[in-house]
Amino acid sequence: MTENRFRDDQAKNMMIKADNLNCYEFFLKATEIYGDYDAYQHMDKRGKRSELIAEIEALAVYFKKELKLKRGDAYTIFTPTNVESIVAFYALNKIGVIVNFVHPLLPDEVLFETIKESGSKGIMVLGLIGLKQHNVEAVNKTGLPILLCRCSDYASPVKKAAAGLGEALLEKILKYRDATLYEDVIKKYMGRTVEGEKNNGDDIAVFLNGGGTTGKSKTIKLTSKAINENVHALGYIDHIIDPGEEGEIIILPFFHAFGLVVAMHMTMCNAARIIPMMQFDGKLVVKLYKKNRISGIVGIPAMFKKLYHTPGFDGPHLSNTRMMFAGGDDLSPAFLQEFNDMLEKNGTSARLRQGYGLTEVGSVCCANTNWTNKDNSIGLPLAGVRMQIWDDDHKEVPDGTVGEIVIAGPTIMEGYLTADGPKDAGLYYDEEGTPWVCSGDLGYRDEDGFFFFSGRKKRVIIISGYNVYPVDIENLMDTLSFIKESCAVRGISAEGKPIVKLFVSLKAKGDEEDYRRQITEACEKNLSKFSVPREIEFMDELPHTPLEKVDFMALEKIACKKN
Fold it and tell me: What is the mean pLDDT of residues 68-79?
């Protein structure tokens, strides 16, 4: 059994403990020593910590006085990554209301399902969603009180005047049903406050969707304490030197645990100026980098790959960055080396570091840092987190043996949200009564305690009794200069036997037969014979999930359908 602890002096910047605080209390305590710094930024317009707190308090009054929300109720936030979502999260958390974060581009039937499942008593949306008429009709059909945000809510005065008129006209055309404007609520209750819940960290704070990369996704229950414990454990990664002047770009969505806990809550509690982006745009990231002192950025591998190829990203403006962190998917060693060579060339101390986590464990549970890292690994467990490798009988296996990654500790979920099942559904209890999250991911631990990711348990391709790990093939493909993206899946031969089928997108058009030959030769030279793809198909672009991961399930359906 391994319980890694990072040294105390590496975590000293996070001055407060999670205790039993809710997330809003934790944010207030974590930042009260920094004064009235610039806490957020929408494009070029900044807002002070005091302004943010006043808006949180005003919105909390609306939720409690007008909507009559109370402790234990649920409320749906159906918006992209924006300042309004931050304000609403803390306002609802203050009064003990569970926030049900939902992807704003989900199909209507999924929206109805999650609202019914969560028991939400209201919904916040962004007017831009109205560009798709069916979403407006779906929001109206929920029958819930609507709080309507506008892109102009936090715009500069000049841009606000022009944009606001256009948005108002759009709303009139699209006909939201009796919607209340976010901006009007803030104006109405500005300067007022309402009694909130105190020290209720054990309450459920959020319902989050697990992503559903291997089937129908589950709704995960996380407490404020679990979220705060994760931020406390991650406090050693970066420490803001100049509060309000150093910014961190937030690309990840808040309906994803990595986005909510690490990108947003940790940044807010670390006194950085948060710069949220409603959707990923490489050119906009470059623009923000050139106009601001960007100290950190977190994202998934696909986003960093796009940034790497975005003109202008490679430049001296990267020298201000101290922390770059990738999670949510595997990062190939070849790309990692290329990216970090670029960072070193630009004189920054930062390196793109890989970690590992799940929504079920409150986000990150294992990470590499600039001072503690090992090539190709996902790092060491965070302070307080226990990670082990188990076999199918829930027994720990020796170091170096591949098995299922399991996690225990104060950051794990309360369980899955179920209608009739147990409150702790999804947790496995060992003989000592300790709850564990069984990740469904395969990996191993080395003799130094570092963990390595081998792939999804359900993605293992078994050929003649041999386990083939698609991630090994995909990492090798990243060493071939002509490949943009790749995905290895289980296919079926003409004889009805399982084979490896490889889907590939190219950086530029070329001789596909020659590329097939190079791919096959690379696999034969570096992998076992069972891992050599029997079929290779080129596509203009590989399909992606809403979280920008390659959709291997869609490709596996294609592979099996064609045979």
Answer: 96
Alpha-carbon distance values, 283 to 279, 335, 508 (Å):
12, 20, 21
Dist CA 174 CA 126 (whole Å): 13
Q: List, in order, residues 6 or more apart from 124 with CB less than 8 Å away.
A: 75, 76, 77, 78, 79, 84, 85, 88, 146, 147, 148, 149, 182
Asked if residue 262 lies in contact with residue 298, where contact means CB atoms within 8 angstroms, the answer is: yes
Q: What are phi and psi of 68, to 5 degrees?
A: 60, 35
Closest listed residue to residue 332, CA positions, set 294, 366, 301: 301
Most confident stretch, 83-92, 201-210, 470-479: 83-92
Tell me 398's DSSP state: P
Report pLDDT for 213.
Answer: 38
Q: Which residues contact 327 (CB under 8 A, 6 or more apart)?
A: 258, 262, 298, 300, 354, 355, 356, 357, 363, 364
β-pairing, 180-181 with 120-126?
unpaired
- Which segments of 353-506 does DSSP mark as H helices, in order? 470-477
Please give the model's pTM, rounded to 2 decimal places: 0.84
Residues in the chain: 563
Q: What is the pLDDT of residue 519?
A: 96
Condensed to tens digits (0 to 9), the pLDDT of residues 345-367 reads 999 989 999 999 999 999 999 99
Contact 533, 473 (CB under 8 A): yes
The percent of the chain in helix, strand and coil, each rounded to the nearest 5, is 35, 25, 40
The proportion of the chain whose per-residue pLDDT surpasses 90, expressed as a percent, equals: 61
What is the rounded average pLDDT of the residues 10-36? 80
Residue 100: beta bridge partners?
76, 207
Per-residue exposure over 254-270, b if at least 16 CB sit within 10 Å of its own CB, e if not:
bbbbbbbbbbbbbbbbb
Structure tokens at 531: 């891992």
Rounded CA separation 494/364 (Å): 43
- Residues near 136 by Cβ (< 8 Å), separated by ≥ 6? 129, 130, 174, 175, 176
- Enumerate the β-bridge partners of residue 463: 466
Non-local CB neighbours of 153 within 8 Å, separated by 6+ positions = 42, 83, 84, 182, 183
Alpha helices in 190-296 (DSSP H): 224-234, 257, 267-269, 282-291
Vertex 476 angle, CA 296 and 533, to 5°? 135
State the distance between the two ends of the chain, measured CA to CA, in whole angstroms: 45
Backbone angles phi, psi at 412, to 5 degrees: -75, 165
The burial class, CB within 10 Å (0-12 / 13-18 / 19+), for 513 is exposed
